[in-house]
Amino acid sequence: MAIRVAFLGPEGTYAEKAAVALAELEKIPKPDFIPCKGLRSVIEHLAKNLCEAAVVPVENSVEGGVTATLDSLWAHPELSIRRAVVLPIKHSLFSSGNLNEVSEVLSHPQALAQCNEWLEKNLPNALQLPTSSTAEAVKMVYGSRFRAAISSKTAGNTAGLKELAFPINDIAGNRTRFLLLKKEDIKQKGDIASFAFSLKTNSPGALLKALSCIANYGLNMSRIESRPSKRELGEYIFFVDIEVPGNQVKNQELLMDSLLPYCEHFVNFGLYPSSEIQEVNSINF
Q: Domain 3-88+174-186 is classified in which CATH homologous superfamily?
């Protein structure tokens, strides 16, 4: 039986490449990749049992956390993280015209932000238009001489567009981390543990007391990010990743228990393996 894997579509997006890589790493037999429109739709597909797995970007080394993913994870605590992969990013600029003819640049908002300095220097008067994905941008600029798309080499070349510049991302070490999600019990094997929590009280030192638990058990916090609770101003949800060496799995379990007294709500996304791909052709979302 094929395993359905949802990702941010349409076909040809960077997310599809990430989904293929994660399916291979997780050894998913006969994956059937399902393109979705919008990151929330990807997670909703999994939450509503329209697929068995979902792949979403969670953070970029330049632009930070992907808020749509974080908010959706908090809204669906029944989902767990099975694996992560970090992919390098190298953007291209494609069009049917020439660089001096371009007056509009289309792409996903993250891709536009990651190429902001290049665009300011080379196309300072071009209007930047956000799209739901880089692949959608490629489709929208096809045949136009005044429009250009920021996308992967693969997407632009497949569409038959002319590559005007590569690479155009501002930071050479630009990378994105993707998660493979499933609607299963949390995983308890790997080198990264992820969880989210809200505090019982919004009082001085409340967050410090919660985070001190991590230091007390000798675990390194590799990421912390806050998102508004959407209930009232000044109330936040905190997303945390910690590194868990093989000899500290027990400490990770103790940490979770010690955090609970400080939390109003606590969601454990699991302990899972994380891999880094050294060279992939323009992976992003």
A: Periplasmic binding protein-like II (3.40.190.10)
